[in-house]
Amino acid sequence: MNSLRLGVVKTLVRQDLYYALKSARGLLFLVFFGVFWFWVLWKLSSGNAQHLATPEAGMIMSWFIDPKVASALFVNRAPTFSAFFYLAISTAPMFVLFAASDQTANDIGSKYLRFLTPRCNRIEIFIGRFFGAVILVAFAYLAISLVAALISIAVDKDSLAMVIADAPLVVISLILYTLPFIALMSLCSVVVGSAGLSALMGISIYVILLVLITVIHLKMPAAADFLAYALPSSTKGAYLQLSWSTMLSAAITVPIYIVVYGYMGWMIFKKRDI
After folding, report:
1. In a domain, 161, yes or no
2. Would you say 253 and 265 are in contact if contact means Cβ atoms under 8 Å apart?
3. Do residues 167 and 246 lie in contact, with contact meaning Cβ atoms separated by under 8 Å?
4. How far from 216 is each of 64, 120, 198, 261, CA to CA, in Å?
5. Is 144 contained in some domain?
C-alpha cells in the first residue's frame, strides 16, 4: 500500500490538529505565542511605533537593518502594522521550530504509529502531519495579524487604506516564510523520538548555522552568502520589503526548502522503526 489517498491525509490532518490542541506541545505553543503577542500588541496599541515613521527614526534604523527594508516598512505605511510585521518575521523561527517539533517525534517514541499503519501508509502519515503543523501555524499568524491590523487602524491616523492594502501581503509573507521551518522540523521530528529533543535539535541546527555564517562572513563574504541559503531565514530581507514582486521572488525558494528537507525526512521515516 504505497499510493497516496487524499481522504486519508485529510483525516490525519484533522486528527493532528485535534491532538495539537489537546497536547502539552500544542497548548504550550498557543500559550507562549498568545502571551508574547498580547504583550507586544499592548505596547504597540499605546502608539509606541508611530515615531518610527519619522525621517530621524528612519536614519537610526538604517544603521541596524537594511536601509531598503527600513524604507519599505516605514515610509508611507502604517508604522504600527509595519512594526508588527518586522517583529513577526524576526521571531517566527523561535515559535515555528517549537510549534512544529512534534510532527512524528512523540508518536515514534511511544510506538503509537503502529496503530495507524494498518489503516494508512507511511507517506500519508508523513504528509498529513506536515500539513497539520502548517495549518496550526498559519491560523495562529492569521489571527494575530488581523488583531495587529485592527490595532494599527485604531492607533495610526488615516491608516485604514494602507493597512487594508498591506494585510494580505503581510499574512501571505508570514505563512510562506514559516513553511521551510516547518519542513525542517519534519526532518528533525523523525530523527528523534521526543518532541523536546526534536525542538532542541531544530533550534541547535538553526543557531549553529547562523553563528557559522556570521563567522565566515567576516573573512569570506561570498562564501557566507552562499552558505546562508542553507537556512530558510535567507529570504527574510525579501519578505520585509513588503512588495509583491520581492515576495514572489522569495516564494520561489519555498518549494526547494520543502522538497529538500521533506525528502531527507521521508528517507529516514520510511525506514524508521515505528
Report:
1. yes
2. no
3. no
4. 20, 46, 27, 24
5. yes
Q: What's the chain's length in residues?
A: 274
Residue 272 identity (one-letter amino acid): R
DSSP 235: G
Structural domain includes residue 198 = yes
Q: pLDDT (tens digit, 9 = 90+) per residue, 159-216?
A: 888 899 999 999 999 999 999 999 999 998 888 877 788 888 888 888 888 888 888 8
Cell (9 digits) for 153 = 487602524
> SS3 for 129-168, per residue?
HHHHHHHHHHHHHHHHHHHHHHHHHHHCCCCHHHHHHHHH
Rg (CA), the chain: 20
The range of the structural domain enclosing residue 163 comes to 6-269
Tell me, yes or no, whether 1 lies in a domain.
no
Q: 261 is written with which cell numbers?
A: 528537507
Question: How far from chain centre, in Å, is Cα 108?
Answer: 24
In whole angstroms, what separates CA 243 from the centre of its chain?
19
> In the chain, how many domains are there?
1
Give the separation between CA 174 and CA 101, rounded to whole angstroms. Answer: 18
pLDDT per position as a tens digit, 5-36:
777 788 888 887 887 777 777 788 888 999 99
